[in-house]
Amino acid sequence: MLPTERYAEARRFLAALDEDWANHVQTIGACLHQPKPARDPYEALARAIAYQQLHARAGDAILGRLLVLAGGTFPSAAALLEMDVSALRSCGFSAGKITTLQGIAQGRMTGLVPDREQALAMNDETLIERLTTLRGVGRWTVEMLLIYTLERDDVLPADDFGVREGYRRLKRLAQQPTPKQINALGEAFSPHRTAAAWYLWRVPAPGTVAAP
Prior knowledge:
Order of helices and strands: HHHHHHHHHHHHHH
Radius of gyration: 18 Å
Mean pLDDT: 93
Largest sheet: none
Number of domains: 2
Low-confidence stretches: none
Number of helices: 14
Structural class: mainly alpha
CATH topology of the largest domain: Endonuclease III, domain 1
Distance between the termini: 21 Å
Helix content: 55-70%
Strand content: under 5%
């Protein structure tokens, strides 16, 4: 199913919320959110850690070097644990991120990090509670796993800067709402909170034009 078809109902639902949403959804057009369901949760978590606190291009470069180091494919948990720390540092990973990556890989080996089939059978909060026990893995990281790898349609990452800033711009507020406020406001977006996040990430700054 094409993204334009899959999220057509979400688009209509959000556009009906109020005039601000209607205008924004009309400007942006169809929701083109594209999950990456082929990835294993272990790989998705590891990739998310690579991008933490970095611009996309920097994260791309680090991952590119890791793939070269691993022979062209993303390393398995066992392979990652066997990699030399200095080699991982040469890819651009900080000491803290290396420790987190090794913890995720170890968690996959012990079963703490489920495979895709197991993860699909678990609800959102159970997965979040379980995976945030890993050092360096926060709620936002698991929410990205839910949105992109497990294709969950009703996840609003309230800690996400882009979501909060997008809502501030959409409603022309003086300050960003807090994560707690976004969680409460997001109840109105259910059961299409993932699509709502996609649209909020695309609210233009004042004086700029939104790209359809």
